[in-house]
Design goal:
Blueprint (H helix, E strand, L loop, with lengths): L9 E5 L3 E10 L2 E11 L5 E2 L2 E2 L2 H14 L6 E6 L4 E9 L3 H12 L10 E10 L17 E10 H13 L3 E7 H12 L7 E7 L4 E7 L2 E8 L4 H11 L3 H8 L9 H28 L5 E7 L8 H9 L2 E4 L15 H7 L4 H7 L7
Parallel strand pairs: 1-6, 6-10, 11-14, 14-15
Antiparallel strand pairs: 1-2, 2-3, 4-5, 7-9, 8-9, 11-12, 12-13
C-alpha cells in the first residue's frame, strides 16, 4: 500500500498465533497456488498487531522461509490492529492530483496520532461521475461527490516489520492491510451483488478483522481486539487446564475426563463475546448506511472449530458461511494435499488475499 514495485511477491501474514506464507501465479485460466505454509509463534511474540519479541519472530520467519524453500526475496505483508486507522470520507469530485494535495490536511481531522508519525495513503472507492484526469477539470454546476478511504498506519509499527524482514534477507515491497486482503480473496472466489451488504469476518487468535462491503465496495472496517483465544481461555478457566490443552479441546480433541457438554457451554460463552462485538460493529455500519448486513463470510483459524458458522448464525440471526480461500485457485495435486488445503481454506484468507496483490497495486 505504501510501496511499489513490479517484481513477484511472497505474501506473509503475521498473526499472534502463527505466520502464514502464500504464493500464487496468474495464468490464462486464472490463479494457481505455488506455495502455502505456516509456522506457530511462541506466545506473546506479536500482540494487537505489534511486535513484542522481534528475535522470536525473526527466528520463526527464517525457519518458515527455509522449510518452504523460498527463493524470492520480495514480500507483501498485511498489518492490522489499533495502530491502523481507516476512515471513509466524502469530498467534492476532483482529480487524484488535487486529492493527494489536500488529503493530508483532511486526514488530520480523523487520525488520533500526530500526522508526522504515520504513513498515509488513500483510495477513491466511489465517485458521482467520471474522475477528472487533470487539476481543475471538475465539472461546474451541481457539486458532485466522491467517497475516499483514508488509511494511516503508525510509522514505527511499519518499520518494526521492515526490520524483521531485513534481518532474514527479504525486502517488503508492499505493505497492505489485513481487512483489504480479505476483500481481495473474496472477490477472487465469489460473485458480488450490487444491492447487498456482506461482512467479511476473519477471526484470528487475538484479533478479528471486519470488512463490510456495500455493493462490492468497502464501506466500513474494524479491527476488534478479541479472537478465538477468547474461546480457549473460557475452556482453560472452566476446566483448570493449560492454554495449549484448551486449544486442542476447542478443535474437538476432548479427553475422556472432561464432559463434552461443559466444553460446548464454554465454547458458546467465548463465541458469544465475539458475536457481541460483531453486533456492535454492524450497528455502527448501519447507522450511516441504507443497507443492513445480509450475510457473513467467516474466515480465520478459529473457523477450524466445528460448528463455528452455526454458532455465529444462532447468535446474530444472519446467514453465515465459511469462506473458501482456495475456491477458484487451481493447484497441482502432486505438490499439495487436497485434504490439507480443504482444512486450511478458512485460515488462509488473509495470506491468500495478500498473495493476489501485485507490487504496482495501489
Amino acid at each position: 500500500m505504501f510501496f511499489s514495485s513490479h517484481k513477484p511477491l511472497v505474501a506473509v501474514d503475521i498473526g499472534s498465533h502463527s505466520i502464514k506464507l502464500a504464493q500464487v501465479k496468474k495464468g490464462r485460466k486464472g490463479y494457481e497456488l505455488v506455495n502455502f505454509g505456516m509456522i506457530l509463534l511462541p506466545p506473546d511474540t506479536v500482540m494487537d498487531g505489534e511486535i513484542e519479541n522481534a528475535q522470536a519472530l525473526t527466528e520463526a520467519l527464517r525457519n518458515l522461509l527455509k522449510s518452504e524453500k523460498i527463493k524470492n526475496k520480495n514480500a507483501v505483508i498485511g498489518i492490522s490492529g489499533q495502530s491502523v486507522i481507516i476512515k471513509k470520507i466524502s469530498v467534492p469530485l476532483m482529480s487524484e492530483e488535487e486529492l493527494a494535495e489536500m488529503i493530508r490536511e483532511e486526514a488530520e481531522q480523523y487520525i488520533p496520532f500526530d500526522i508526522e508519525e504515520v504513513n498515509l495513503d488513500f483510495q477513491i472507492v466511489r465517485a458521482e461521475g467520471e474522475i477528472p484526469q487533470e487539476k481543475g477539470a471538475a465539472p461546474s454546476g451541481e457539486e458532485k461527490q466522491m467517497d475516499v478511504l483514508i488509511v494511516a498506519v503508525r510509522k514505527e509499527v511499519v518499520q518494526s516489520y521492515l526490520d524483521v524482514f531485513k534481518e532474514v534477507g527479504m525486502k517488503v515491497k508492499v505493505v497492505d492491510l489485513s481487512v483489504f486482503a480479505l476483500q481481495n480473496i473474496f472477490e477472487c472466489n465469489y460473485d458480488t451483488e450490487a444491492d447487498t451488504a456482506v461482512a467479511l469476518v476473519n477471526v484470528g487468535a487475538s484479533m478479528t478483522n471486519v470488512n463490510i462491503l456495500e455493493g462490492g465496495v468497502t464501506a466500513f472496517t474494524r479491527d476488534i481486539p478479541i479472537g478465538g483465544a477468547t474461546i480457549s481461555e473460557e475452556i482453560q478457566k472452566s476446566l483448570s487446564i493449560g492454554f495449549a490443552d484448551a486449544e486442542k479441546i476447542k478443535l474437538g480433541l476432548i479427553p475422556k475426563e472432561h464432559s463434552k457438554e461443559d466444553v460446548i457451554q464454554r465454547v458458546k460463552s467465548g463465541c458469544e463475546r465475539i458475536c457481541d462485538e460483531l453486533h456492535k460493529t454492524f450497528e455502527m455500519f448501519e447507522k450511516n448506511s441504507d443497507f443492513k448486513v445480509s450475510k457473513i463470510y467467516l474466515s480465520g483459524g478459529s473457523c477450524q472449530m466445528e460448528g463455528m458458522d452455526a454458532l455465529v448464525h444462532s447468535y446474530l440471526g444472519m446467514e453465515t458461511e465459511i469462506l473458501d480461500s482456495f475456491g477458484k485457485i487451481a493447484f497441482n495435486p502432486k505438490n499439495f494435499d487436497s485434504e490439507y488445503l480443504e482444512a486450511m481454506a478458512s485460515s488462509a484468507a488473509i495470506p491468500m488475499g495478500l498473495a493476489l496483490r501485485t507490487a504496482d497495486d495501489k
